[in-house]
């Protein structure tokens, strides 16, 4: 039985992964350097420290990470200053959880300062106020720390929580946390090997609502 739901944020709740990619492209153009999509794809689901490492491995001293990241944020913050696009079925799922008194929590690799602003302008903050941010845990995804901490925040056993994810690091972390793990695809390419052992792959959050209803009424 699902007694709590843990949401990844970017790409799972909010349709923002495409905006992040556009932000990196914007930064590359301003700096006169090609930042390949294959590289930005590898950032998905990872915390800033892990992204910094991957960036340095690719560019070395040829491009300053902090400068590029600041320009990426310049683009991203402008296009999300007043609102943030939802993934299909988000509001319905959150309202279902609220009506059935199933606690929900966000577990995002994004640091608190940036993620909390997105949550605030999302229009669903009243339905999901709990969150664990990437800068609140020592080990980011694919380690399970952030999901274990999220389950603790809502007072639930991790084994009875459902993790919703769209990235390989997130799915690995979800499986390691020991509960249900559902993959809701977005932009990230997830290898078949990573999908092994997950609970389910569903097309959107509408299907997640139906899955929880069925699971909790067996």
Automatic annotation (TrEMBL):
GO molecular function terms noted in the UniProt entry: sugar-phosphatase activity
InterPro entries in alphabetical order: HAD-like_sf, HAD-like_SPP, HAD-SF_hydro_IA, HAD_sf, PGP-like_dom2
Superkingdom in the source lineage: Bacteria
Matching SUPFAM superfamilies: HAD-like
Entry protein name: HAD family phosphatase
UniProt organism field: Dorea longicatena
């Amino acid at each position: 039985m699902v007694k709590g739901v843990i949401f990844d944020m970017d790409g799972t709740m909010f349709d923002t992964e495409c905006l992040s990619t556009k932000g990196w492209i914007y930064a590359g153009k301003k700096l006169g350097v090609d930042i390949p999509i294959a590289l930005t794809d590898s950032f998905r689901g990872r915390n800033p420290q892990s992204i910094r490492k991957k960036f340095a491995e690719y560019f070395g001293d040829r491009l300053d990470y902090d400068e590029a990241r600041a320009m990426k944020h310049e683009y991203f913050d402008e296009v999300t200053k007043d609102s943030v696009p939802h993934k299909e079925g988000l509001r319905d799922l959150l309202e279902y959880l609220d009506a059935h008194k199933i606690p929900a929590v966000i577990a995002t690799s994004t640091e608190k300062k940036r993620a909390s602003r997105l949550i605030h302008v999302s229009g669903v903050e009243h339905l999901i106020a709990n969150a664990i941010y990437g800068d609140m845990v020592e080990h980011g995804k694919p380690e399970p720390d952030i999901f274990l901490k999220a389950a603790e925040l809502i007072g639930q056993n991790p084994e009875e929580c459902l993790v919703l994810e769209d990235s390989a690091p997130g799915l690995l972390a979800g499986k390691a946390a020991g509960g249900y793990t559902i993959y809701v695809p977005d932009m990230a390419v997830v290898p078949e090997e990573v999908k092994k052992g997950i609970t389910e792959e569903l097309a959107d959050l509408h299907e997640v609502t139906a899955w929880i209803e069925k699971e909790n009424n067996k």
